[in-house]
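To: structure subgroup
Subject: Chain for Friday's discussion

All,

I'm putting the inputs and outputs inline so they're searchable in the archive.
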Amino acid sequence: MGMAYDYTFKDVLFFRERQQIDVQNETGDFVGSIVRTSEEAKRQHVRKGTFYAFIGLDGDSRCSISVEKRGLASLKGYSYFMNDQTTEQTYQLADVPVAIYLYFHIKGKIKGMTFEAYQDWDESIVLKLNKEKFAAISFNEHTFQVDIQIIKEVDSFFVSPAFLSLIYCIFRMYDIEREIIDQALDLL
């Protein structure tokens, strides 16, 4: 049912600082880039290596995400800052505490609406606003292809390539840490 703004990009195995991942719309037009940097993290109180931003066609940052430093409280789940540079608003998302050790699931209030994203049984990431599904993100582990499909028309912020690609980056951080934990448990 894809609408005029489905997005796609190719993830990388090692996303180095200052590297760019180009995001395209469904017609193959470049719409912006995801970048990873630690420069902003030094000024904000966030975990090192967790700052991702979406840069628009004009070279300006549109939106960014990072993980809040919380010490041992992080064992219950992470808290994420999402900064919308176009409106200068900051939103906070958080892992669902019980789910963090089972599967990816984040929630938060954004623009007065309840947002959540979680990993579904088919391994895609389901995005909901006020409990209604509006988008899905799929990732192919073999090709590193990420496909984002808009299912329902909602507020433009939630269907922007900046917001959607950064939600994928939150999942990416979760997935990398889950792999590290799985490997450590295998050694026991």
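Points worth raising on Friday:
The helical segments are 39-43, 161-187.
Residues 161-187 form the longest helix (27 residues).

D.
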